[in-house]
Amino acid sequence: MILQREDARRPRPSLGRAGGVGAEGSKPAVQRRDDGKDAYGPRPEGRGATLIAMRVQGILLSLWVAGAAGAQTTRELAEINWMEFRELVPAKIQTVLLPTGTLEAHGVINNGADILAPTALARAMAPRVNALVAPAIPYGVTGSLDAYAGGFSISEAAYRAYVADVLTGLARNGFRNLIVVNGHGGPQTAILNEVAESVGRTHRVRTLVTNWWSYCSDITLKIFGEDGGHAGWNETAFIQAIDPRLVRQERYTDRLALARPAEGAWSAYPFPATIILYKPGQGYVRFDQAKAKAYFDAVVEKMTALVQEVIARWDEAAVLR
Hints:
alpha/beta; Rossmann fold; four-stranded parallel sheet; 9 strands; disordered N terminus
């Protein structure tokens, strides 16, 4: 028979997880903070609430990721991904803006003014008319200034065929409204009008050709108090508003400008000035940044309203939908 000491027969106290003392067979004692929470974690009901919150956050994150994956990232046709394009056209976007221009002398602004101006205009208009912006067609049928340094001119036959193919491609990709934002006049305007109408009729799409400087001639008079011209005050101001670095003010003299002759008066090739004034004595270039910005903004407003109105009228008539 083994005799045990008296203290060996006594029950030993149990130690809680935090070092406290509890009764024999009971759960470990837990220290409590003043706020009633466990010192080493939330109570079981708190952990349940935490799990629910985490699940809700996970669901919201999944929805956000899905939405981000389907969100429109750009309005530039050259930057958009093919899967994004497929989701947008024509289900959400039916309009495309196609800038057209040429390379030719423009007084003291860049040779590519006829490309830059309609491109900047199209980009400003695109979100307001729910459109994508196609890459500009940079070469055109220049006319009487193509002999100046850096000028280009495409033959009419080549230009017609190329523009027709570009517009046809836009139609085949699902666009219903093909808006040409033209930046160059001369013989190019008539060609664009004819080609656009032919493509519209052949492919059953709706086309609009715009010439911003002509349509907004009233704004020129309002802002500058006089008429403008090719590379005149109005067009120079338009480029000044877009990028002042492209305006070579130090090279300007009034000698660069000449009014175009009255119909049938005389004709010269190349035209003997790179700033062609619409009216004698009006349109000589001045450099006013505030007026330049006001002019650009007013042109954007009027051109946007034109496109919106034409499309609205097409839709109301349910024509070629």
